[in-house]
Please model this.
Amino acid sequence: MIRGTQMNARFSDKSVLVAGGTGGLGHAVSLAFLEEGAKVAVTYREQKGFDVLKNAARANTSSLQGHKLDVTDEAAVKQLVERIFTEQQRLDVVVNTVGGYVGGVKLWELEPKAFDQMLALNLRSGYLIARAVVPAMLKQRGGAIVNIASKAAVDHAAGAAAYAAAKAAAVAMIDSLAADLKGTGVRANSILPSIIDTEVNRKAMPNVDFAQWPKPEDIARVVLFLCSDDAKLIHGAAIPVYGDT
Ligand SMILES: NC(=O)c1ccc[n+]([C@@H]2O[C@H](COP(=O)([O-])OP(=O)(O)OC[C@H]3O[C@@H](n4cnc5c(N)ncnc54)[C@H](OP(=O)(O)O)[C@@H]3O)[C@@H](O)[C@H]2O)c1
Model:
């Protein structure tokens, strides 16, 4: 959709950060915000993902900024948020779609390095992002934070102990953060996807019927709703987005 002709521009000129904005879900979330008029900054590690996103953004490319950094690095996250505030003067929305999955391994067989990586990608990322953005959001007296957790946070299948533990902890962290933020105008919520219909999942599970899997674009709609004024009463929620799965 071309800027200026948006039928539904709830985020016109809002400043949005999508951590992991080039991933299977992040890509769709970033495009959805751009289509509704937002200025979007995304984080990524691989340049290729950002090039694909930039290409897909078409007429909205000038509203898209990419930042190559590791969101588990405290100094890098702080520096990025400071840069966004210097350039945009505000940050209205932060969506953390960074995560990682190690599964199919029993807990006692899981390498400590993989365990630490699950905590870093699925828990520490959200902590560092909240730590960097909340003080500034409090100053501007408003903001919306959405952290992408997983169905695994509440449905603890075999072979996914570290991932489930990290996602469950992330939901608890955001719930407690929401309690900290009551009455401030800054809202924080979690989203719990089941298996998403991404390219990576299709490749990993080629024999599964993926027609039922929730599409990234449909989850993006839920994310945008949560970040919009229509959701001003929703704070400290963990929203399942399982579709028919
Ligand atoms: N896919 C699913 O079926 C599913 C199901 C339930 C929950 N979830 C959760 O939903 C979220 C999105 O999943 P997804 O499938 O879209 O993931 P994804 O495709 O792996 O995308 C992750 C994104 O985060 C970026 N990223 C990863 N580590 C980073 C780091 N340390 N610093 C900065 N950026 C980093 C990646 O960039 P690069 O690609 O450049 O590395 C990519 O943009 C995750 O939290 C995931 O756990 C996914």
Q: What stands out?
A: Residues 15-241 form a domain with the Rossmann fold fold (CATH 3.40.50.720).
